[in-house]
Specification:
Arc Repressor Mutant, subunit A, BirA Bifunctional Protein, domain 2, SH3 type barrels, seven-stranded mixed sheet, 14 strands, 32% helix
Length: 325
C-alpha cells in the first residue's frame, strides 16, 4: 500500500470514510492508513478528520494527482485508473509514444507538471513552465477504423478540448484551424496528434493526442517569452480554474469523443465549424506555387480548410500552417 491508494479511496468516497473502512479495503491496519494520511497532509492535501465520522477530502490536492483525477472520472471511463502524473518530462507526447511502443494500454493518460522539450506542430517548441499550464497526452488504439477517418482525429480533439475548457471554467474558447484554441484573439492551447503504424502490416497502431493549455501565465510571463502579442492564459482572461478539475473535464470530453468516433462526425464537424475563428478571415497559406492569400470560406467534411483565393481560385488546405491576416 502507498499514499496514492489512500488518496484514491479518499477522493472517490464522495464524503466521509472511516479509517476502519479504508483499512479493510486496502487490507492493512488502521495505523498504516493513518500514516499515509499524515503523509498526504504534509503535502498539503486538505483532509478533515473526526474521531467518530472518519476522514473527508475538503477540496482538491495542492498539485496534480493521478489518483485524484481518476477518482473523479466515471468507473467506465476509458482513462479511469490509468492517469499518470510526472513532475518533469521532455514531452508528454514523446514519453507516451515510447510507452505505447512498449505496450501501454489504450486510455493511458500522461500529465506533466513541466515539459523541458514540449513540441507543437511542424517541430515548433512549446513553452511549458511548471505550474503555469496543463500538459496532457492520451493514448488511443482505434481498431476497425478507416485511415481516412483517423486523419480527421485532430479536428475531433480540437472540438472536444474546446468543450472541456468551456465546461471547466466558462471560457468561450474558439478553434483556430487546425489545431489551436484561441481566447479573445490570442492562443490559449496547442494540440498535437500523432499517428503510428505497424511496421509489418502498415495498419494503424496507436494515436497519441497531446495538448498544452495556458492556465496561470501573467502578461509579464508572456512578454518575457516574446509572446505578449500572440498568447494568453485562462487566468489572464479572467477564467481561473483548478488544474485537476480542468484535467478531469478534458479526459471526460476525450472519453466521450472516443465513444462517438467516427460515427458522429457530423456533430463534431458542426461544433467545429460553429466555433472556428478562422472562418471569414483573410489568411495566408502555402500552396504548390508558394505563399497564397485568400479568405477562409469553410471547413469540409474531412476538417480541411476551404479558402477562396484573392485571384478567384478555390483551395482545399489539408495541412500546413495557415496564418490569419
Amino acid at each position: 500500500m502507498d499514499k496514492n491508494q489512500v488518496a484514491a479511496l479518499l477522493a472517490g468516497a464522495g464524503g466521509r470514510v472511516s479509517g476502519e473502512e479504508m483499512s479493510r479495503a486496502l487490507g492493512v491496519t488502521r495505523a498504516a492508513v493513518w500514516k499515509e494520511m499524515e503523509a498526504l497532509r504534509r503535502e498539503g492535501w486538505p483532509i478533515e478528520s473526526s474521531p467518530r465520522k472518519g476522514y473527508r477530502l475538503a477540496g482538491p490536492p495542492p498539485a496534480l494527482s493521478g489518483a485524484y483525477i481518476s477518482a473523479q472520472l466515471p468507473p467506465d471511463s476509458l482513462f479511469s485508473g490509468k492517469v499518470l502524473v510526472e513532475p518533469v518530462v521532455d514531452s508528454t507526447n514523446t514519453r507516451l509514444k515510447a510507452m505505447a511502443a512498449a505496450g501501454a494500454p489504450e486510455g493511458t493518460a500522461l500529465i506533466a507538471e513541466e515539459q523541458t522539450g514540449g513540441r507543437g506542430t511542424h517541430g515548433r517548441s512549446f513553452q511549458s513552465p511548471r505550474g503555469d499550464g496543463l500538459y496532457l497526452s492520451v493514448l488511443l488504439r482505434p481498431r476497425g477504423v478507416r485511415l481516412e477517418d483517423l486523419l480527421t482525429l485532430t479536428g475531433w480533439v480540437g472540438a472536444a478540448a474546446r468543450r472541456a475548457v468551456e465546461r471547466a471554467c466558462g471560457a468561450p474558447a474558439r478553434i483556430k484551424w487546425l489545431n489551436d484554441l484561441y481566447l479573445n484573439g490570442k492562443k490559449l492551447c496547442g494540440i498535437l496528434t500523432e499517428l503510428s503504424f505497424l511496421g509489418e502490416s502498415g495498419e494503424p497502431d496507436y494515436v497519441v493526442a497531446g495538448m498544452g493549455i495556458n492556465m496561470n501565465q501573467t502578461a509579464e510571463t508572456f512578454q518575457a517569452q516574446g509572446l505578449g502579442d500572440i498568447a494568453t492564459s485562462l487566468a489572464l482572461e479572467g477564467f481561473p480554474v483548478e488544474r485537476n478539475h480542468l484535467a478531469v473535464c478534458l479526459l471526460s470530453a476525450l472519453d466521450q469523443m472516443t465513444r462517438n468516433f467516427p460515427d458522429r462526425r457530423a456533430d463534431y464537424l458542426a461544433d467545429y465549424r460553429a466555433h472556428c475563428v478562422t472562418l471569414g478571415r483573410r489568411v495566408s497559406f502555402q500552396g504548390p506555387e508558394g505563399t497564397r492569400t485568400g479568405t477562409a470560406s469553410g471547413v469540409d467534411g474531412s476538417f480541411a480548410l476551404l479558402v477562396s483565393g484573392d485571384d478567384g481560385s478555390e483551395h482545399t488546405v489539408n495541412s500546413g500552417t495557415v496564418t490569419m491576416l
